[in-house]
Sequence to fold (409 residues):
Amino acid sequence: MIKIEGDNTNEAPAPSEGKSPVSAAIFLPGATIGILGSGQLGRMSAMAAKSLGYRVAVLDEVADGPACSCADLSFTASFDDLDALARFAEAVDVVTVEFENIPIGALEFLETRVPVRPSASVVRTCQDRVLEKEFLQNNGFPVAPFRVINSAEELASALSELNSLCILKTAALGYDGKGQISLKPSDDAASAWKQLAAPRAVLEQRIAFASEASVICARTFAGETLCFPVQANVHRNGILDITTVPAQLNPSVLVKAQEITSAIAVKLGVIGLITAEFFVMENGDLIVNELAPRPHNSGHHTLETTMTSQFAQHVRAVCGLPLGPVELRSSGVMVNLLGDLWQSGEPDWELLLREAGLFLHLYGKREPKAGRKMGHFTLLSSQASHPEAQKRAIELRELIKYGAESDRL
Ligand code: ATP
Ligand code: MG
Fold:
């Protein structure tokens, strides 16, 4: 392991005793990467790590998650179990996360033993909507008008202050649009607050955006940043549905989205990846919706479309390796496959796999629940044929539903 001096990150300083110096910057292939969380993001990160010759250990509260079958070691334990965390720290050289809803105490404990990238402090900011919004606003990044809400009374006055359509979002533990309630100024604050059943929330003005986009940026220990191409996202029921790359936006908007994301990465001092989700206004203005300090669902297409995938870049950034090039090899459309698709039976994979330029990824989840992300596919396209590729991808997802072909006969 090579150690680089200098600390321009917010990685926690920690005692240097223990099996390895916690300030070590570079972990070469052969080292063990510890991933907190064992979902599909951990699985694809583990695959990227394995193909670079790393060993992988995952720790999660649930057993047998999608990442476990791709890891050398799996720990099943509560994130509050300090003995298990100590054993995990002993088994790995560097720790990263695949989701941000990890108790900060666990990350802080691990930081005393092993480098944690992103740091507990970065994860703390990104796992709490209040801290995240305040971080963005205080640093001059554009956000939707919002109010912090701690009670039904505060909600009532915020609704009348913002005086527009709004969304009430839990401060913690929201994902895929869960923990959100749409409100209008005349709605009853007391019943909305009761329904949300959260100790703290953000009331945010509903933005009449023209489209949504996201940018994934990698930042290294040495402070280098590199953004992936801007991707255009369409959500359905609060869940990402389709991502198209490159986003068909004015070039000045594309540059601005990448500049904002790099600036966020620098201000946060993140080591690893940071994803910024944007609302794009009709006039090209950008509003940052939220941040994720990890690989992102909207970046799954990078497995096929860019020179380096988001997962390989995550591994490189976390391990202190040079960042890989992110130029597009092809444009493409990524479509999520939710559990709903399994409603009448197993989808027709053969039909999908016969399609030229289509790459299918299934996460190995056993139970296809409604709204659960079971897999995705990416259909490569020439940029000129973006709308056709989108149409075809959506059509294919319909066609593979069990019984869909016989229905049409
Ligand atoms: P995820 O973590 O899966 O991205 P989430 O639960 O954190 O989801 P958000 O990203 O806050 O949720 O919201 C999900 C989607 O809901 C957004 O991508 C957007 O389509 C819509 N949405 C959220 N906030 C607003 C807003 N203020 N105005 C308009 N639409 C919004
Ligand atoms: Mg989101």
